Amino acid sequence: RMPRQVSNPREKEIKKAKTAARAVAKGPIKKAAGKIRTKVHFYRPKTLHLRRSPRFPRVAVTALPKMDQYRIIKNPMNTEAAMSKIEDNNTLTFVVDLKANKHQISRAVSQLYSVKVVNVNTLVRPDGTKKAYVRLSPDDDALNVANKIGLI
Q1: Are the C-beta atoms of 150 and 144 separated by less than 8 Å?
Q2: Which of 39, 75, 100, 152 has the greatest number of CB atoms lying within 10 Å of its CB?
Q3: How far apart are alpha carbons 13 and 86 in whole angstroms?
């Protein structure tokens, strides 16, 4: 191949002059002004946090709640003091799970015996079990519930 013949001998110089003219028209290269820092500590910038969208579930089966009403309430108490509370205060006494709280006890009693609970008092006995005094609403009679359970 033959090298390309330059028609105008000053073509190189003209091209160079044109690029220089373009650079002059553009102006000098300016460095972007840096952000003024107002704090002495550097905090990493907040980045995009995407929600997880797993391709498969990490556990095969969803676990059932461990504290159901049958685990919460272990057994009713039928001591003399408990019987007097049933008659006088419309209150049932139960031995309950140590980890159960008052809300769970209240829900369990209302589910098991279909009664409305007014309030729950709890204490941990010296033998390490938890005792719950469950006061029923005036509409529900503790004697009837105790009879249904088989306490009386």
Answers
A1: no
A2: 100
A3: 112
**pLDDT tens-place string over residues 41-89:** 999 999 999 999 999 999 989 888 888 999 999 999 999 999 999 999 9
Q: Does residue 94 contact residue 105 with C-beta atoms inside 8 Å? A: yes
pTM: 0.62
Give the residue carrying structure tokens 């010296």. Answer: 126
Q: Answer whether 101's CB lies under 8 Å from 94's CB.
A: no
The sheet carrying 73-76 orders its strands as 73-76, 91-96, 130-136, 117-124
Tell me the C-alpha distance between 36 and 60, whole Å: 53
How far apart CA 119 and CA 134 sit, in angstroms, is 6
Amino acid at site 52: R
Asked if residues 120 and 105 have their Cβ atoms less than 8 Å apart, the reply is yes
Of 122, 126, 135, 117, the residue nearest 96 (C-alpha): 122
Helices 102-113 & 142-149 angle (0-180, nearest 10): 70
